[in-house]
Amino acid sequence: TRRITVPQIAARKGGEPIVSLTSYHAHTAAIVDKYADFILVGDSLGMVMHGMDSTVGVPLDLMIMHGQAVVRGTQRALVVVDMPFGTYEESPQMAFRNAARIMKETHCGAVKLEGGKRMAETIRYLTERGIPVMAHIGLTPQSSNVMGGFKTQGRDEDSWPLHEEDARVVAQAGAFAVVLEGMVEPLAARITKQISIPTIGIGASAECDGQILVLEDMLGLNPKPPKFVKVYGNLGGQIEAAVKAYAEEVKERSFPEEDHVYR
Ligand code: KIV
Ligand code: NA
Q1: Which residues does UniProt mark as catalytic (predicted)?
Q2: Whole-model pTM?
Q3: 244 C-alpha to ligand 2 centroid (Å)
């Protein structure tokens, strides 16, 4: 089967909601691949997979390794890989060089980068040169040191015009979709109505054209998930029960059993 394409995602504006999850890992990505329109190899992997306290320290090589794992593990969904902090902000040329590495080494279908108006020139530079870009505005975790933490955006109505401008400008610059993260519902609704590309919400209400969650959060692996996460599974509890049972059986020598032994 052929993968879902960037234009197919863009064409979903205002239509059937776009389904997306993050994945960093071949076996989980293969499951997500059956149901998601696109899979994001998010730089949240620094926190989720590697225990970092923010995404600021995530290296490009790590994004590429996890991007390769997810592309290998999937066949249907579009795979989008996050550009990590420090690999694209300086100039469009620098962004192109690093985005091209991601595309060539992972065979993903698009990259995502954080920032609105300030990244418009870069978004245009990349898309005009063959690299599809998903934008990401609102709460942008790579700027958490400037924002003073992870703060919901748009609580003050005076800030709405700036966020609306960010959304308009990234769409005009050629982004094929835009993630709205951590944003009050009325602002997400206004932006979704105002622009011609799909909005993908995370903590930004059902007014968006699609939704994304961090897989480990919705599976119940994060002991303290953010408020906007609906926890659909209890993987943490299931893993603990399995590990506990294994430990007990090893100690009492009831594992391995007959079926697990070479005779
Ligand atoms: O890194 C990530 O997982 C993301 C999503 C939360 C949108 O950027
Ligand atoms: Na990210």
Answers
A1: 181
A2: 0.98
A3: 33
